[in-house]
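Narrative of activities, Objective 1.

The group set out to show that a structural description can be obtained from nothing but a protein's sequence at a throughput compatible with the screening campaign. Below is one input-output pair from the validation batch, recorded exactly as produced.
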Amino acid sequence: MTHFLPARRTLLLGTALAAGLVGLPALAVAQSGELNLYSSRHYDTDEALYADFTAQTGITINRIEAGADELIERMISEGANSPADILVTVDAGRLERAQQAGLFQAVESEVLQERVPEYLRDPENFWFGFSKRARVIMYACDRVENPPQTYEALADDEWEGRVLSRSSTNIYSQSLTGSVLAALGPEATEEWAGGLSENFAREPRGGDTDQIRAVAAGEGDLAISNTYYLGNLMRSENPDDRAVAEQICVVFPNQDGRGTHVNISGGGVAANAPNPEAAKLFLEYLASDSAQRYFAEGNSEYPVVQGVAAPEWIQTLGEFQEDDLSAEIFAQNNAEALMIMDRAGWK
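Output recorded for this entry:
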């Protein structure tokens, strides 16, 4: 879906209103009354996020929505004439691809450096994570008594024909494998990927919700999925969705070691942003307490800012230790991870 919201200029409400951004210190007034946002986040609940920013700053958001790869290619083709001020997308792998294509400019912001953990942002401040999703092992509560406790254990012979996963071409799979690669090295990672692919209950297809539904339907016993997909099923108004969620239990892998892999949704200021000050203000807004709650409540994600609570339905999954591997590292490992998965038979 691609569209612009009606463009209009709105007078800024001044420093006092900018300072009202919840959870942030006083911010500089932006230079423009509008902001051009390219976003691959397709969640209806983000509407409230954008409306809140406009209400607090007076800055109108003009938005284009499309797939991440489409937006990246569009910005490349637009070059210096691109109207984009901000690119927001999911997965550090895509943010890193955009950076490598020269689509971001570095942002100097004490607010972002203080509120976004170091491992969830680019070391040179080209992009920042604003919400987290843990990639976990989900299993059929009534069929699996002793689920695997690590990502590595998914490759054990015990789980032959029982594991469900997205394909290797999916960036979530690549980033997870990129984190395994950082931990184990290439040879052990390829051995792991080979063992895992031999344990697939079916050829990888569909998204994370499809894997969860397939476990509930008995097509497999284990699934690799991001937590927010289960969270959204848990709180769905559809009783069939909630019935699926009730059949699913969760393991946060590698709790006795490096911790559970977490990925991000994030963004950066476009290299040729026509409204760079408004763009910086928007990124700082995304790190505010109020915006962090919109991310969490709207799409069952984990906030990145310390002290902002995850939604109640996500907290019921339990606390866990995160893998604090830099998102930049597993993102840069994506290309090698894909080659490893392909050689190992993970299609």
